[in-house]
Design a protein that fits this description.
By secondary structure, this protein is mainly alpha-helical. The protein has one domain (4-161): Four Helix Bundle (Hemerythrin (Met), subunit A), CATH 1.20.120.450. It is 58% helix and 2% strand. The chain has helices at 4-19, 25-28, 38-58, 66-70, 81-99, 104-107, 122-146, 159-162, and strands at residues 112-113, 116-117. It has a two-stranded antiparallel ribbon. A hairpin with a 2-residue loop joins β1 and β2 (116-117).
């Protein structure tokens, strides 16, 4: 069974998808400055997962050039929704087998990035990634409200079934 923090990340991802269900390609690229558009948020989170769980953890970069398009500090962009969901899906699917190997002991380790020990442990990075999703999910719901969307999803879904607290 995956580590409970990995289950939390997976639950958070499912809530993220749930919260963005039925967003049109046109609405996904609309900006209410200074907020980024929804498609950017999707790509941005995929970029973080690619960097953490693929590039840093395994030396794999599935799609080059995403830092410039949706990375931290990049200029605002309005990438196509279908492209960002495809990127997100590819990255999360590729990351999951590695995430399934994490143990409590491994979460305490610090990855080596460009020859230097990273200042955060894998566990902290896992929490940061999960919390980052919730931040952008709230932001995306605000954008949806500004777009006039109604009947937005309620949160937090069936956490008791999908990601309950369990002791190790």
């Amino acid at each position: 069974m995956p580590h409970p923090l990995v289950l939390q990340l997976r639950f958070t991802r499912s809530e993220f998808r749930h919260g963005l269900k039925d967003v049109s390609a046109n609405d996904a690229i609309k900006r209410f400055e200074p907020i980024n558009c929804i498609s950017w948020m999707i790509g941005h989170l995929a970029f973080q997962e690619q960097m953490y769980w693929l590039t840093r953890a395994q030396g794999i970069t599935l799609i080059e050039g995403m830092k410039e398009r949706v990375g931290w500090g990049s200029e605002p962009t309005t990438p196509p929704l279908d492209e960002m969901w495809a990127f997100w899906t590819q990255v999360t699917k590729a990351a999951d087998p590695w995430l399934d190997t994490l143990t409590s002991d491994m979460l305490l380790t610090h990855p080596v990035v460009q020859g230097k020990t990273h200042n955060e442990s894998i566990g902290t990075m896992l929490r940061r990634c999960t919390y980052h999703y919730w931040y952008h999910l709230g932001e995306a719901q605000a954008v949806r409200q500004l777009l006039g969307h109604t009947n937005l999803p309620q949160f937090v879904g069936s956490i008791g079934d999908e990601a309950p607290y369990i002791s190790e």
